[in-house]
């Protein structure tokens, strides 16, 4: 595939290395300095991958839909604008896959947490909580992944609120803990990202899946579709 990148920070650089390693070509890279060139340079790319800043996401969705280039949206902190993004994609016949977390393992973790929440439903002695930790440069808090986990817990438990604690320090690629705590014991479920490689692999997988499609998809649905058809993902 010929790919374009939006953003060229820590995550986009790992995505670039992963894509090149998998035999794909990087045709263009856009940051705030050359964002105005995107409409002219995007046509001819098979897909674009965005790991930039929340404030630029809608512009990237618009320019990709206008150029007919499918977009893998990995930036976090823009979920309040999801309806506007969907309108842009649908009005212009674009294609978009989005996720706060492109790690396949995290999506398995979501399912484990959903099942745990079901098991704790009605067990009022247990309080659920979420702790997440990321590197000091991450801008949004709580993380998009923590917000998805919170939503899963609220739906599964069908009661109360779930507190989320965020830590921003050092170089931590991303750790999420979900706990169920009572007077007598605690159950802790943990997902630890070892590097950004898993996010990059998921984003490139999503780009491959999206090329030639239209519409707006969550990565969770894409994974289900891939697993149902191919069984082996990574
Ligand atoms: N979905 C996932 O799996 C996943 C995993 C990890 C991280 N993320 C998210 O990915 C995003 C980027 O993370 P990061 O660690 O790579 O951040 P980063 O190192 O700070 O990089 C951000 C990049 O965005 C660029 N940028 C800023 N304004 C822009 C604009 N208007 N148009 C295009 N590019 C622009 C910056 O370059 P200039 O300032 O030079 O323009 C920089 O290259 C964050 O939202 C993070 O939470 C998602």
Mean pLDDT comes to: 95
Main beta sheet: 6 strands, parallel
Q: What name does CATH use for the topology of the largest domain?
A: Rossmann fold
Strand line-up across the major sheet? 2-1-3-4-5-10
| Quaternary organization | single chain
**SS element count, helices:** 8
In one word, what is the shape? elongated
Beta-strand content bin? 15-25%
Ligands (ions, cofactors included): NADP nicotinamide-adenine-dinucleotide phosphate
CA-CA gap between termini: 18 Å
Instruction: Give the helix proportion (percent range).
Output: 40-55%
* SS-derived structural category: alpha/beta
Order of helices and strands: EHEHEHEHEHEHEEEHEH
Low-confidence stretches: none
How large is the radius of gyration? 18 Å
The CATH architecture assignment of the largest domain turns out to be 3-Layer(aba) Sandwich
How many distinct folded domains?
2
Q: How many strands?
A: 10
Q: Give the class-level CATH name of the largest domain.
A: Alpha Beta
């Amino acid at each position: 595939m010929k790919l374009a990148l939006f953003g060229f920070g820590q995550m986009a650089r790992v995505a670039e290395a992963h894509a090149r390693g998998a035999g794909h070509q990087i045709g263009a890279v856009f940051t705030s300095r050359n964002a105005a060139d995107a409409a002219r340079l995007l046509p001819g790319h098979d897909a674009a991958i965005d790991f930039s800043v929340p404030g630029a996401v809608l512009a990237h969705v618009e320019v990709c839909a206008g150029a007919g280039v499918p977009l893998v949206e990995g930036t976090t902190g823009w979920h309040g604008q999801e309806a506007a993004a969907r309108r842009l994609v649908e009005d212009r016949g674009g294609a978009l896959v989005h996720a706060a977390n492109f790690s396949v393992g995290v999506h398995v973790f979501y399912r484990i947490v959903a099942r745990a929440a079901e098991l704790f439903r009605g067990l009022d002695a247990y309080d659920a909580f979420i702790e997440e930790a990321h590197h000091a440069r991450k801008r949004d808090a709580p993380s998009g992944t923590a917000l998805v986990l919170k939503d899963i817990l609220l739906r599964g438990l069908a009661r109360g609120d779930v507190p989320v604690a965020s830590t921003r320090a050092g170089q931590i690629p991303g750790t999420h803990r979900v706990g169920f705590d009572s007077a007598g014991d605690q159950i802790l479920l943990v997902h630890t990202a070892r590097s950004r490689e898993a996010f990059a692999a998921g984003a490139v997988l999503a780009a491959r899946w999206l090329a030639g499609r239209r519409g707006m998809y969550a990565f969770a649905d894409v994974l289900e579709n891939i697993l149902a058809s191919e069984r082996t993902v990574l």
